[in-house]
What does this fold into?
Amino acid sequence: MLSPLRGALLAICAVTLFASGYSRLWVHNVWFPWLIFIALQIPATFVWSLAYNSVRLHVEKRILHDSLAMHLSPARVAQLLARPELLKPGAEKQGNHNHVHGHCEFFEAEFTYGGG
It folds into this structure.
């Protein structure tokens, strides 16, 4: 796959080459066989690539939704799909789980210092 900058430069080159061949065809009556490749195959490949990648993205999102829905509530699934950065490792924690930690510290302090 090309980076966006290289893809744009390649597209500009292809359009320039097509315009040059098109002008030579109609102005100078000179035919280049590669004009078929540039005029038909490159746009067809581009459209096919867009269609394939959009369908693949839709399927991946559906699989992610279904796998998350098996383990989480629908509201949580919607929240995670709206903010995909939460799915990455090391994402920020949601909710307050300190009540369990504070509860354990209370008992540790009681047994350590209260038994004395």
User: Anything to note?
Assistant: Residues 46-85 form one domain. Confidence is low (pLDDT under 50) at residues 98-111.
